[in-house]
Specification:
Helix content: 40-55%
Strand order of the largest sheet: 2-3-1-4
Oligomer: single chain
Strand content: 5-15%
Shape: elongated
Distance between the termini: 92 Å
Order of helices and strands: EHEEHHHEHHEEHHHEHEH
Number of strands: 8
Number of helices: 11
Structural class: alpha/beta
Length: about 325
């Protein structure tokens, strides 16, 4: 008789349920006769899986088939449940300075990194399958040499690479959380500056030029405060200056009563401007300016609606204000 004993501290019900389900499937498909015996030892609960007889419905070594079904149950348990329990333990140990609400936010971010559904290109699903298969392989290696396994110890000491991956995921989640918090504080300060400013323009349109520079126009398509975004200094050190920051600085200085963004609505700068200026900022619903830009992106030769064509768009010889 072959026997494999699985011990656990935190998951006796889940281990019992998954082993029972997998081994019942083995009995139904292969005709094996298996019993499960349970006993306690301190904080540990041990479940002994006993192969009393092997059926003759399938091929292969019955002991290897038995171990495979046990390993499969444990791999699913580790990927789905033990991992979710391990993430908060890592967070509490490495980042105890965060309060409960912040920790909940960080854990939600960490868990989303593990879910394939958050990866639109489908690679997340592939990584998830590979992660589960690697764990299954390590379990099979271990069960070939040992007849007793403690789930939590196996994760910590036999799946060191996977455990390090969980630590890295928590680190990435913390970094994203901190970046978002800094961004929210940044937006809050910018809102404060906007509230202090007297409007210097009634309406400003924000467009992006082919070379990546922004341009501000009034409702008559006249350039507004061109030196903010296209002055000599900016042109000399263009590569070293963050154009998004320049745009925000210009808009805060001008504090327009209305801002129309002729930009990609999903861009970070568009999101920031709308967050800072609130109802003052809106996305362009579609106009000749945006239509011309879309044609230019497709390589269609067209005349820019501001009075200059795309060949001389960057030479600084713009229309008079």
């Amino acid at each position: 008789m072959e026997s494999i004993t699985i011990g656990t501290v935190d998951n006796p019900d889940s281990v019992r349920s998954r082993l029972t389900s997998e081994l019942r499937l083995l009995q139904e498909e292969e005709g094996f006769r298996i019993t499960i015996a349970e006993r306690g030892r301190g904080k540990l609960t041990f479940l002994g899986c006993n192969l009393e007889s092997a059926g003759n419905r399938g091929g292969g070594n019955p002991l290897e088939v038995f171990r495979y079904y046990v390993a499969r149950a444990l791999a699913d348990l580790i990927v789905n449940e033990v991992t979710q329990q391990t993430l908060p333990k890592i967070l509490h140990r490495n980042y105890s300075q965060f309060g409960e609400e912040d920790q909940d936010d960080i854990l939600a971010r960490a868990r989303s990194l593990l879910e394939a559904s958050t990866d639109p290109d489908g690679r997340g699903l592939v990584r998830q399958i590979n992660r589960r298969n690697q764990i299954l392989f390590r379990l099979l290696e271990f069960l070939d040499l040992h007849d007793e396994l403690v789930v939590e110890g196996f994760l910590r000491f036999r799946l060191k690479e996977y455990f390090r991956e969980l630590v890295e995921i928590i680190d990435r989640a913390v970094e994203a959380f901190m970046a978002d918090r800094e961004y929210r504080e940044f937006v809050r300060l910018l809102r404060y500056f906007v509230e202090l400013q007297e409007p210097r323009q009634e309406e400003v349109h924000v467009i992006v030029r082919p070379e990546g520079l922004y341009r501000l126009l009034d409702r008559e398509d006249r350039v507004v405060e061109n030196d903010y975004l296209e002055g000599p200094v900016v042109k000399m050190v263009q590569e070293e200056i963050n154009q998004d920051d320049l745009l925000l600085s210009a808009l805060i200085t001008l504090a327009p009563r209305r801002i129309v963004l002729h930009l990609d609505s999903s861009s970070r700068v568009a999101e920031t401007i709308r967050s800072v200026f609130g109802e003052r900022a809106e996305m362009c619903p579609g106009c000749r300016r945006c239509a011309a830009e879309r044609l230019a992106e497709k390589g269609v030769d067209t005349v820019d609606p501001h009075g200059y064509n795309k060949e001389n768009a960057g030479n600084g010889d713009d229309e008079d204000e």
